[in-house]
Amino acid sequence: MAIEMQQIIELILAIFLPPLAIFIHGNDCNMHVAVNIILCFFFFVPAVIHALWYCFFRA
Fold first, then answer.
1. Tally of structural domains, the chain
2. Which positions, given as ranges, span the membrane?
3. pLDDT tens per residue, range 4-59
4. Helix/strand/coil (H, E, C) string of 4-59?
5. By the 8 A CB rule, do 33 and 15 touch?
């Protein structure tokens, strides 16, 4: 199972800068970016979980 470079970058960004990871993954500023920014202001761990879900587990 090969991991692509973009996935590695998204994983690192999802941990340290969750809104940026969502922005890069979605290629636009959508509702998920706004939700994640709000989560970052209030709770950092849920923002990381949301970014990981959006980048890797969303169908």
1. 1
2. 5-25, 37-57
3. 888 899 999 999 999 999 999 988 888 999 999 999 999 899 999 999 999 999 75
4. CHHHHHHHHHHHHCHHHHHHHHHCCCCHHHHHHHHHHHHCHHHHHHHHHHHHHHCC
5. no
Residue 19: other Cβ atoms inside 10 A: 22
What is the C-alpha separation between 28 and 43, in angstroms, rounded?
23
Angstrom distances, CA of residue 19 to CA of 2, 4, 28, 42, 58: 25, 20, 11, 13, 16
How far is Cα 22 from Cα 33, in angstroms, rounded to an integer?
A: 6
